[in-house]
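User: Please predict the structure of the protein below. I'd like the answer in structure-token form so I can feed it into my own downstream comparison script.

Assistant: Understood. Taking the following sequence of 154 residues as input:
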Amino acid sequence: MVGRCEWEQGEQGDSGWGRLVRQWPQPSQQIHHNIPPIVRRSLEEAARCQGAKAYTACAVMVGRAIEGMCKDKVGAEYLADGLKKLKSQGIIDDKLFQWGEALREERNIGAHAGTEAVSWQNARDGLDFAHAMAEYVYVLDEKYKEWVARRTKP
């Protein structure tokens, strides 16, 4: 295992070694601790499916992760309704809504018997989009609120 750590200068003149980051073998995508278990478990399982070349299963688990986000944030039982509620309540914007719709369609390919297959690239991209949506909803929104609060303090 190979890692990297850099010397960092803090805002208050303090300095020290930063966080150690694994470089090799390439680490798996990390899931932020603010993302709740209802979403986290499905993202982790989707990554395991993708790594095992079970691309259809990956797409299903990605859809399940987004559905978990809908259930957690707006109480929606179904993915399509949940995405609409997330958008109407301003939790996600139009671009994330479009991503969610695309992930829902890809999930449906995996969840329902048919002749279409989920490709490696679609499974990988779907997993990336799901991570980005979860980061936006659970992590970046909170960071932004904290940042605004710090800036408005006298």
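That's the full token string. The CA atoms of residues 36 and 95 lie 23 Å apart.
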